Amino acid sequence: MNRLLKILLALFVVLALDLFLLVKIAMNWHAPAVAGLIFLTGMLGIFLVKMKFLMSSRVVRKIEKATDLNKVPIKEGMQAVFVLIGGAGLIFPGFITDVLGLLLIFDVSRNLMFKIFYPNFEKSQLFMEIEMKLSSELKKRGFLK
């Protein structure tokens, strides 16, 4: 099965479970309180992603250091993508996506999740493919020697 199709299927399953859980909780709680909670987590997601990228000079320095050493900054780029995915998870209404979003936004939990799900990432075929494509593109544009 195509990688993109698997990701879309997983996203659909998570969102469907989230909707089911949201309806169950709204039936047991006061519905306006649940709606307010969803609104607040959406605003929190926007705020946290904005703050994370405003304070991202550390990531930029890591990327610059990697390119100065003639290395492709794949991990740093993936960290930034995970922060964006985490922010999107907080913006989507639901509790499961909120928890996943919070886990992806904070450095400690994001790094732990990365080590759990990609323990041998730097040795994987995916890493090698990304590194080859990205290094050739960076060389064309003059970022790598």
If you had to describe this structure to a student in words, what would you say it looks like?
It is a single chain. With 145 residues, this protein is an all-alpha fold. It has one domain. It is built from seven helices and no strands. Helix 2 (31-54) runs parallel beside helix 5. The radius of gyration is 18 Å and the shape is elongated. The N and C termini lie far apart (37 Å). The mean pLDDT is 77.
Write out key terms for the chains shown.
single chain; 145 residues; mainly alpha; 81% helix; elongated
Annotate the secondary structure layout.
Blueprint: H1 3-28, H2 31-54, H3 57-68, H4 74-91, H5 95-105, H6 107-117, H7 125-140
Structural class: mainly alpha
Number of domains: 1
How far from one another are the termini? Answer: 37 Å
Largest sheet: none
- What's the tally of helices? 7
H/E topology pattern: HHHHHHH
Mean pLDDT: 77
Query: Got a strand count?
Result: 0
Shape: elongated
Strand content: under 5%
